[in-house]
Amino acid sequence: MIRFGIAGIPLTSKGRTFVDSVIDSHMLGLNALEVQLLRVNVEETPATEYAGMSPKEIDDSIVVNVLRMDENGNYQSVGIDTVIESEDILQVLFWNMAKNYDEIAEGGAVARELDVQLSMHAPYYMDLLSDQEIAEKSYDHLKWSLTIGRSMGAKRVVTHTGFYRGTKKASAAKAEKVFTRITREFRHDNGFPYVGVEAAGKPELFGTTSELIALAKKVHGIEPILNFPHVHSLGDGSLTDVASFEAVISEYEKYAKYDLYTEFSGVEHKDGSEVRMTAIKHGDLKFETLAEFLQGYEKDMTIISMSPLLEHDAQYMNIILLRTIAKRLQRKSAVKA
Question: Which of 63, 102, 145, 260 has its CA 20 to 30 A from that of 317?
Answer without folding.
Answer: 145
